[in-house]
Prior knowledge:
Layout: E1 4-16, H1 19-25, H2 27-47, E2 51-56, E3 59-64, H3 67-85, E4 96-108, E5 111-113, H4 115-126, E6 132-135, H5 136-142, E7 149-156, E8 165-171, E9 232-238, E10 242-243, H6 248-268, E11 273-276, H7 284-290, E12 293-304, E13 307-316, E14 321-331, H8 337-353, H9 359-371, H10 378-392, H11 398-411, H12 416-432, H13 439-454, H14 459-472, H15 475-488, H16 493-505, H17 511-514, H18 531-544, H19 555-563, H20 567-574, H21 583-595, H22 599-613, H23 618-627, H24 631-644
Parallel strand pairs: 4-6, 9-11, 9-12, 10-12
Antiparallel strand pairs: 1-3, 1-4, 2-3, 4-5, 6-8, 7-8, 12-13, 13-14
Helix pairs in contact: 1-2, 2-3, 6-8, 9-10, 10-11, 10-12, 11-12, 12-13, 12-14, 13-14, 14-15, 14-16, 15-16, 16-18, 16-19, 19-20, 19-21, 20-21, 21-22, 23-24
Amino acid sequence: MATTERKMAAILAMDVVSYSEKMGRDEEGTLRHLRACREIIEGVVAENRGRIFNTAGDAFMIEFASAVSAVSAAVDIQKLIQSRNESLSQDQAMQFRIGINVGDIIIEGENLYGEGVNIAARLESIASPGGISLSEKVYSEVRRKFNFAFEDTGIHELKNIEEPVRVFQVNVSEPTTSGSGFGSGKTSTKSLKSSKFNPKSIVFIIVLSVVVLAAVLFGYLNGSKTDGGNLALNTILVLPIQLSEEDKELKNFAAGLAQDLSNELSSISKNLNIVRSSQRGTDASTAGKQAGAQFVVDGNLRKSGEKFRLSVSLLDTTSNSIIWSKSFDRKISTGDIFSTQDEIVSSIVREMAGNAGSALTKDIAQRAIKKGSVNLSAYECVNYARGTYLVTVQPDDYPKVLKCLKEAVNTDPSYVDAKITLAVILRFGYLSGSLKDASVIDEAIRLIDDGIVIEPKNAQLYSTKGTLFFAKKDWPAMYAAFDRAYELAPNNVAVLSSISSYTIWGGECTEDQVKDFQASGGKYTTGNCRWQKGFEIAKKADELDKANTVVGKHYGLTYVLILAGKYDQALQQIQKVPAPGFIWYEIHSGLIHAKLGSKSSAGRHFEAVKKLIGSSKLKDVQSHFYFYNMEKTGWNIYRPTFEQYGFN
């Protein structure tokens, strides 16, 4: 008897447009083309950790762990099938409709049931040929994670579904226009693709381990205001936490949370203006506007027995939209009440405002995108560089970012965040080959040294300095800088991420040493081969950042696991934040899939590598291993697979 499992999941339903008609005209040919499409679907689903359930003729029902994975898979499927269709006649071409919903499902053997499944199926039926329909639940989870247009088609009465559903259509071929935004019917997270920041095509979310940034989000605002009025971009109103009941213990706990949250947000940058309100008022958005704040932190606390649930959200008062939210379920115990409070506050600050992938950084970067490349304030430039460029890494944008960051540093020599970000950009330009003159690394080190004079206890200055010495292959200096950064911020995920990856790649390790995965603890933690130390720090960063808000922390882990032959674990790491279009994501993913026997998936990744470097020559891809000091430890492992997939 089949076991039954109930859970929340993202469901993707899809079928072929006019399938019966195609079968009537050419049954054999239709089945042949459907099999080819199924291979594409299976490959994409595997890459996104999905699971195909019910299949009936032309229909597929697929489960994913998250809405992001489901939408990512849907877009890839539609693009790949459209690409295949370009070489076929209209009669031969297959067009699929896709619907995606998040909800409660029941799994019984190889079948899926439940309203979550039913709504996905109904959404599929109203999707346009080659299109993707999303429920509002899915849209709310992914709207800031992708770079294509979402069109609000309004409320729909779906057959046999009791409650009406608001439906959004995804346009996989057109990014949003510069004037679109939340509430306009379209929204996206765009990359700048021309001097006017107009994207040319869908920009994939890229995660770049070499540019992980540490905690400081907000810097000198230089008088920046929002385009809509007098709300300051650097002002955040923290409201008192709302209680579900009058309980003295709960009241004290809530007050402590609000106070610590205000203090921690204030510590992010000396020029971030945190306004703490003593009264909630009737409307959070109105309260924020009255305080002149662009953003409002709101929360409520509910208690049930010895347990409580804290829900916190970040509201943008201009659009009256929630740009980040999270719930915490904990047990109140007198013995650990303060550690519980510290843990929650640390998590909130990190995910909401404390790193390059945080909600506020992305929101400010969006404003810079909409404003265009002209007259970006120093504040907007830094947040654009962190929140968009350093996670999308579009080559056309590099000169713009470099230019505005240099202007930011010249405008305010005391703006440490600008110095750090410019140093990172210079290092990345050199390591990626955009900047050929090695003197840019010395220039970047001077910027960091200037910053250390201003803020001698800023851990990110030291972690960035270590990565610059990595570029110079000065291992003692790199290790010294990393040790100081770790001493200053042993629990800062972004700092740990940067330290760990470069410690794994840096030094004079041999292939055999890094493959010595079973070595006793401490064997490779000193001298000029410290990959073990980097690996342990990477695991710590991964454990601290369960929500994967710090981009790139998993690349060092992935590399060690590959060299150790632990390909299943490596696949789990590399897919934590999929980054199609980033060369190391494509290289690592290609090798992992090849080792796991998924030839079609491996082939797609290696074709992407060829496109990215503009070559299929081994020497050209080998140069990337040289720049990142992986030539001695990994090239001999990767090379045979490169040759197998057409590099020569």
